[in-house]
Design brief:
The structure is a homodimer. Chain A is mainly beta. Chain A is built from four helices and 17 strands. Chain A has helices at 14-18, 47-61, 205-211, 218-221; strands at 21-23, 30-35, 40-41, 44-45, 66-74, 81-92, 97-106, 112-123, 132-134, 148-149, 169-173, 190-197, 230-237, 246-251, 254-256, 259-267, 273-282. At the A-B interface, strand 5, strand 7, strand 8, strand 9 and strand 13 of A face strand 5, strand 7, strand 8, strand 9 and strand 13 of B.
């Protein structure tokens, strides 16, 4: 197999390079990052990618490796370019630690502008018991090969094809939830799909933070068009994911007062529920 | 009607008095509070009540009145007695503001110990549009009079009767989810019930923060006994509740690695979904 076609490894991939952070000398808890234009939607940095950058800085800072629960508030729209992550440890316990982080970029005067504020508890997923007792079942959806990639979307479909992030992701949608791309949304408020990384890197807890916010929004399946800006996103990472693409099920039940919740479940190749998330977003006006 | 039997009003009730905060002179953003032993479970302060105290300080501090989404991380166990809430405004926008707060108590040396850290977005529920488009339905459960109050629980039932908070609440459980009180849990992981405040005060957005954490834990319905400490709780308040007790549906689907999620939906007397919440908790060992 040629080197160029070998799948990228966790720790040596586009996602890892583009979420890397460097400790700033003389400023404890402060990390410099470069937000990559490879993870933009139209011209804005994807929210899940931005969260992963903050989570990587927190992994450096906190004594535990994995985000067990992480909440992000999106304050202003992030752009490709330099950023700084300032972290703080709230409490460091034996099996779990609590921290917070803010991601800043710079305005035209060089002043810091806050993009994202994060509050989180980290632990060690490998130290948890193997006990599983669940009534949750994987989403009913076709296999990877029977789902549709973005290469088969019509050119005028919203988002698809117009955004850099699609080159970094391997997205395959359940055809039953892809009708919006040809003007026939189901109206249910559901999006299901497979998600891998385009360079073949397997998922880890950090890429799951990207995964919950990487599919097209449920608003499209409700027949709405336009931007669905996330106000707040909370992700629970429940298990280290097994190799291979994950299945993601997004659902929205309640659109009210111009706001909607979007719930995500992420399932791995071993049929384990590896992440659950909910976000509160502003509904598109369309 | 005698004065003593008139229902308490929002703003003049046990809940309002016990969550009140006083701005500390000369320290902007800092509020003193007194955590009341009336809201304890065994000897610990209830997590929803503690969150409501923080939310009241944030209401004083932020330019908008209502928590739209609020996340709490529980760091150490709070006790009745003095507390201080330190708030910070992250961003104040036109229709929404983002803030954070920490609740501290004092150790035996008088040093501050952090109990709770909160990250939140506030807005004005009355300023949202009346638009509702929902596929969510109220829980199927008996009416208030057909549900069972704590006065009918056996003396040795876990929690019930042993905790001060039960005197402040009017809890009526769906008999189908109350079997654990007589040693016959359903195993499903569901708790449903009606919740009012004992003095007749109607609900408002702050008391909904209490409501999502006030019923017995779903772990009891799974047949587990003991403490289910909340690590993190996120509440979305979607609508100002109509008068009267609310219906609450709690569900747990995934207990894994010693952790479980507990989802709450809160419905008002007008059949509107007024709050959604999810918490990550440590499962009891029992």
């Amino acid at each position: 197999m040629a080197q160029s076609t070998a799948p990228a490894a966790i720790g040596d991939s586009e996602f890892d390079r583009d979420t890397s952070v460097r400790a700033r000398a003389g400023e404890p808890g402060t990390y410099d990052a470069e937000l990559s234009e490879g993870w933009t939607i139209v011209s804005a940095i994807n929210g899940g990618y931005l969260l992963a950058v903050a989570a990587r800085a927190l992994r450096e800072e906190l004594p535990h490796p994995d985000p067990l629960t992480i909440t992000a508030h999106y304050l202003t729209s992030a752009q490709p370019g330099p950023a700084v992550v300032r972290t703080q440890t709230a409490r460091a316990g034996r099996s779990m630690s609590t921290g917070q982080a803010s991601v800043f970029q710079y305005d035209e005067h060089g002043d810091e502008v806050e993009r994202l504020r994060v509050l989180t508890a980290y632990g060690d997923l490998d130290a948890l018991t193997d006990e599983v007792r669940t009534s949750a079942r994987p989403p009913e959806m076709p296999g990877y090969d029977a789902c549709v990639g973005t290469e088969s979307a019509p050119e005028n479909a919203p988002f698809v094809g117009s955004t850099a992030i699609m080159d970094r992701l391997d997205v395959r949608l359940d055809p039953a939830t892809a009708g919006w791309a040809i003007g026939a949304p189901s109206g249910v408020g559901a999006i299901r799909g497979w998600l891998g990384l385009a360079d073949g890197r397997d998922h880890d807890p950090l890429s799951l933070l990207l995964a919950v916010d990487a599919l097209p929004p449920t608003a499209f399946d409700l027949g709405l068009k336009g931007w669905t800006p996330t106000l707040e996103l909370t992700v629970h990472v429940r298990c280290r994911p097994a190799p291979g693409p994950v299945r993601i099920s997004l659902t929205t039940r309640n659109l009210a007062g111009g706001l909607l919740e979007e719930d995500a479940e992420v399932w791995d190749s071993a049929d384990r529920l590896v992440a659950q998330s909910r976000q509160l977003a502003r509904a598109p006006r369309g």
